[in-house]
Amino acid sequence: EPEVTQTPSHQVTQMGQEVILRCVPISNHLYFYWYRQILGQKVEFLVSFYNNEISEKSEIFDDQFSVERPDGSNFTLKIRSTKLEDSAMYFCASSESGGRIDEQFFGPGTRLTVL
Amino acid sequence: GNSVTQMEGPVTLSEEAFLTINCTYTATGYPSLFWYVQYPGEGLQLLLKATKADDKGSNKGFEATYRKETTSFHLEKGSVQVSDSAVYFCALSTDSSYKLIFGSGTRLLVRP
Questions:
Q1: How close does chain A come to B74, measured CA to CA in Å?
Q2: Distance CA B6, CA B25 (A)
Q3: Do B104 and A41 touch (CB under 8 A)?
Q4: Which of A14, A93, B19, B104 is geometrically suited to a Cys-Cys bond with B77, CB 3.0 to 4.6 A?
């Protein structure tokens, strides 16, 4: 069964460093998403991506964040200068088409720890 | 704005007990409603969904009915198993935005 994969499973970094979180969405999907979950809090939407551009982003997704689809399979989230409050579990998701009824398939997550 | 409210956990039940996890929502228009489940060490998996009022979503013995009059989408299961122990998330999406808006999650622990 096709699945979304994410690497690494756990990333530890120093405050101020850049990190890149990687995701491989399901191959025939066209819409891609990043969410995050700070420990003990809600899963929060960060950004959605379609046709090589951002279609929607949240207030959390400021200039420190960027997303890219560098090739036909990977979808990355970059944090330029990490802060302590960026420590969270980051989930990538993909869907076959956009739309409120369409299922989003989630990866297992990357736990980011900023020291 | 749009939001989802879930009952606080953890919920601890004995095997074969009846489960209800409450979920209410606030949304403009006609949202779609979802229950996602997260097993330990895994990502979020869609459990069931309903896309219009009075629809009932069902899967693996779980059910939830889209109630527009009470803006609710409560998750139920008649007889839980130890393997149902997980965190359950209620979520919605709308026509104006395809992002999922999640509730805070409810941890379920089923004891043998």
A1: 18
A2: 9
A3: yes
A4: B19
Regarding beta strands A10-13 and B97-102, do their DSSP bridges make them parallel or antiparallel, or are they unpaired? unpaired
Q: Which among A100, A101, A108 has the least Cβ separation from residue B43?
A: A108
DSSP secondary structure string, B17-70? --EEE-EEEE-SS--EEEEEEE-TTS-EEEEEEE-STT-EEEETTEEEE-BTTT
Phi, psi of A13 (to 5 degrees): -145, 160
B55-93: pLDDT as tens digits: 999 999 999 999 999 999 999 999 999 999 999 999 999
Whether A32 and A92 have beta carbons less than 8 Å apart is answered as yes
Of B46, B103, B105, the CB nearest to A103: B46
A102 vs B: CB within 8 A? yes
